[in-house]
Amino acid sequence: MNKIILAGIVFTGIFFLTSCKEELYEELQILIQNKTDTHMEVTLFPVVESTPTAYPICKGCGANTESKFILLPYDDPRRDMDRIVFSTTDLNTEPYTLALMAFDSIHICLPDKDSAVIKFTPEKATGYSENIFTENAAWDFRIINHKNRVMFGSNPVKYYCYGFAISEDKFVIE
User: Fold this and answer.
1) Which residue blocks in the chain are alpha helix, DSSP H?
2) What's the pLDDT tens digit per position in 59-71?
């Protein structure tokens, strides 16, 4: 009887160890980065229908995030990270294409800079020398490896992060 119980325990242990394989999850993200010395107020205008204050953060995932937010200055100690504005599991998507899929326009207000306003649309950028919606926009790229905890271990996650930086040297005064 003891051998049957021991065999059952061993079999169960082997089953759990072999059935809990790590599955790599990969995601491409676009972010907005504040590289100025002041906070900025960002308003996103999504392509898809959304509530007045939130929009889907990724295609078909069901998660929503705020469409209006404040980004702290790059050197502010309270600043924790750049703002992810949209993501996809389609790793072959270019960052500007993802921006086009997600947003009609993006407005950025810098209250400490005489209320300067930067506006991005697929057709043009106002107040800024680059356009987040065009192929020739400069993007900062980095890969972040992370582990998501699951019941009997963890699964690896790889984020391909493209950051569009807002910096004062690219302001256009009109």
Assistant:
1) 2-19, 95-102
2) 777 788 899 999 9
Cα separation, 127 vs 119, whole angstroms: 7
Residues of the chain with pLDDT under 70: 1-21, 79-81, 113-114, 174
Q: Which residue is listed with tokens 């990724």? A: 58
> How buried is residue 152: exposed, middle or buried, by Cβ count under 10 Å (0-12/13-18/19+)?
exposed
Q: How far apart, in whole angstroms, are the C-alpha atoms of residue 22 and residue 171?
A: 46
Contact 35, 107 (CB under 8 A): no
Query: CA-CA distances (angstroms) from residue 124 to 92, 95, 132?
Result: 25, 17, 9
> Hey, how many other C-beta atoms are within 10 angstroms of the C-beta on 174?
4
pTM: 0.81
Chain Cα centroid distance, residue 62: 15
CA-closest candidate to residue 157, choices 166, 167, 146 = 146
What whole-number distance in Å separates Cα of residue 86 and Cα of residue 100? 11
* Token reading at 95: 């960052």
